[in-house]
Amino acid sequence: MLIDDLRACRAANQLAVPLVGTLSLLVRARTSGAVGSLRPLLKSLSDSGYRLPVAVVEQVLAELGE
């Protein structure tokens, strides 16, 4: 299930449902070859108002060689 809602995440935690964050999901897609560069995808998310910590994004992109 793919969700991005604080209340839903809290409920999932209470039910012991494993959670994977958006950035982690994108990294998995990138490393599996399902998507190419993450930079344009992350830019689109940012442009649409989705917020991710800049330092974390830059670290992930550096680790992926982007």
Quick structural gist:
With 66 residues, the chain is mostly helical. 61% of the residues lie in helices and 0% in strands.
How does this structure look, described?
The protein is mainly alpha-helical and 66 residues long. The chain has a domain of 44 residues. 61% of the residues lie in helices and 0% in strands. The protein is built from four helices and no strands. The termini are far apart. The model has no long low-confidence stretch (mean pLDDT 90). Pfam families: DUF3368 (PF11848). This is DUF3368 domain-containing protein. InterPro entries: PIN-like_prokaryotic (IPR021799).
Number of strands: 0
- What is the tally of helical segments? 4
Largest sheet: none
Low-pLDDT parts are none
For the record, give the distance between the C-alpha atoms at the N and C termini, rounded to a whole number. Answer: 28 Å
Structural class label: mainly alpha
H/E topology pattern = HHHH
Mean pLDDT: 90
Helix content: 55-70%
Estimate the global geometry from the Cα principal axes: globular
